[in-house]
């Protein structure tokens, strides 16, 4: 079971989804869980199947003190770059919380806060702390939902399955039909997009 960061403080966990995708938004979630909250099923969203993730999404929203989810669209990502777009999504998610946390913990190794907050970046945080893992689930489920909706407009790209990531089929369709308005025009599809660590 993942641990709480500090059960004496109001801790907000933050994580994102979609940073390395070729299309669609980058989505960040912030969540504050009750002190001493336990759920042995909550873990890094990448290690859970869709059905379990969707169930946990509802559980987290039902049991958390407060949460927020923010998506930054592809056009804005192209404008300010993916790293800044991720920072923006995370900052807006913090601002949207109904309660101000004592401490913010973020999955990754860097973050730029817009306002003065006590934050800590934790590499592999979604595998260590329950609030970050919960945020990873909220971000992933919400972004997957967005990509499935966008897929109905542009079914040729198979976003319902690949969620905008650079699978061979997705790249093949881009070569064949070009990109659409939801693609990130600044992302290079010929070489594997480098994963940005934040």
Q: Could you describe the 3D structure shown?
A:
- This protein has 198 residues and is of the alpha/beta class.
- It has helices at residues 50-63, 74-80, 82-96, 130-153, 159-162, 168-177, and strands at 11-17, 26-32, 66-72, 103-107, 119-122.
- It has a five-stranded mixed β-sheet, with helices on both faces.
- The two termini are 25 Å apart.
- The chain has a domain at 11-145: Ribonuclease H-like superfamily/Ribonuclease H (Nucleotidyltransferase, domain 5), CATH 3.30.420.
- It is 37% helix and 15% strand.
Keywords:
single chain, 198 residues, alpha/beta, Nucleotidyltransferase, domain 5, five-stranded mixed β-sheet, 37% helix, globular, disordered C terminus
Distance between the amino and carboxyl termini: 25 Å
* CATH arch. level architecture of the domain at 11-145: 2-Layer Sandwich
Stretches where pLDDT is under 50 for at least 5 consecutive residues are 191-198
Binned strand content: 15-25%
For the report, how would you describe the main beta sheet?
5 strands, mixed
Q: So, the CATH homologous superfamily of the domain at 11-145?
A: Ribonuclease H-like superfamily/Ribonuclease H
Main sheet strand line-up: 3-2-1-4-5
* Shape label: globular
**Chain-averaged pLDDT:** 93
